[in-house]
Amino acid sequence: MTPDQPAAPRSRSARPGTGRPAPRSGGAPRLREAVRAKGRAASPARPRGTAGASRPRRRPSRGNALDALRGLQQRLRRAWDRPLTAYYLLLGGSLLILVLGLVMVYSASQIKALQSGLSPSYFFRKQLFAAALGGSLMLLAVRMPIKLHRAFAYPLLAVSVFLMCLVQVPGMGIAVNGNQNWISFGGPFLLQPSEFGKLALVLWGADLLARKQDKRLLAQWKHLLVPLVPATGMLLGLIMLGGDMGTAIILTAILFGLLWLAGAPTRLFVGVLAFAGAIGMLLIKTSANRMSRLACIGATEPGAHDQCWQAVHGIYALANGGWFGSGLGASMEKWGELPEPHTDFIFAITGEELGLAGTLSVLVLFAALGYAGIRVAGRTEDPFVRYAAGGVTTWITAQAVVNIGAVLGLLPIAGVPLPLFSYGGSALLPTMFAVGLLIAFARAEPGARAALAMRQPALRKKLARVRRKTMRRPVKRRPSGER
């Protein structure tokens, strides 16, 4: 090129040092814009102002919540329908009630023991001894076969009737709180035979009804009532000779429970109930003490001559407890204000020291025992097991309702202890044997028996592994340099 010629335009000229032509000035921005548009088309559009923010979570719809509730209900139903549910409820519930009862007996009886010139742990030690003896009876009841339980019913009934007759013999029977239903064995050891009469009535009545059902005689009302009702009437007469109206109510409840399980016709059942109610009202009206107790239902003041003192101070104790109580051992009513704080009104002391949470826990445990007993009675095909389980469940449930109802002021004070909870060895021993009876029936179910048989080898392996680990001798390490 000569100097006279003009220079050519460099729009497409080569880059310095390379032989390639330079790209046009607008090519790169257009390429980047095309890539961005393609990315926006592939990804979902976001609202303005939310760049880089996480997507909002979708709220579960109403249908999903209902499905979750249905799934939870099905899981709970499967858990309740497991073969060992009744077994664990009976074993765990009874032990929890017993342990909590021991704690509350120790707390509620200290002041009573000191006022009597005794050691603060006097009543607790006696209750602990009775609980240990009752545990042996419970284990015996669990291990006994059903045939032996049926054979044991008749001797137990005969012994109970004999001891209840001895109560009325002068010099042998002792009156406690106006009721002569105790036998003294010397020293502080007393026995109340009517408590063993409850267990005898359950076992004997269950065996009697089971035999008649096998012979198909329960369809006739004569065989349904005789000799069950006359024998129960004899026990009630012996109890009422001593003036113990509360125990008579529990025996009557056991009788009605057995008749209900036996399929008594409604008119026959109502007739027996009306007759028993008429007799009960007659006994109440002929006793000034029972009439005063009936008049204290729902009382908020002690009344004339302090006839409602115990009922009113039981309500005071529950009111002082509040939601979570004043603390274990911090009750004020047990300092001489509330009579029988460790026996009939131990539930009131529990409400004062442990509050509403403690009393509701006790109610839930008794409800679990009642449910487990009904389940055992409803799932068995053995008539004796059904009648015995139903009788024991009626016994424990009715006695708990009567005791707690009296403390709450909803029922008259009947003088019956709270099962497995109140102080008293005579009531604790037969009750623990009866709970052992229910546990034996729960273990005897086909599904429960198979589940326990499957778990025994695994448990044995774990115990053997633990035993091998604990029996190994520790190796003594030699110091360094020693051979």
Would you give an account of this structure?
This is Probable peptidoglycan glycosyltransferase FtsW. By secondary structure, the protein is an all-alpha fold. The chain has one domain (80-449). The protein is built from 16 helices and three strands. It has helices spanning 27-42, 62-80, 85-115, 122-143, 146-166, 193-214, 221-225, 228-241, 245-261, 266-285, 288-295, 309-321, 346-379, 383-407, 425-443, 446-471, and strands spanning 173-176, 179-184, 190-191. The protein has a three-stranded antiparallel beta sheet with strand order 1-2-3, with helices on one face. A hairpin with a 2-residue loop joins strand 1 and strand 2. Helix 8 packs antiparallel against helix 9, helix 9 (245-261) packs antiparallel against helix 14 and helix 12 crosses helix 13 (346-379). The radius of gyration is 38 Å and the shape is globular. The protein starts with 26 loop residues before the first helix and ends in a 12-residue tail after the last helix. Residues 1-18, 22-26 and 48-53 have low confidence and may be disordered.
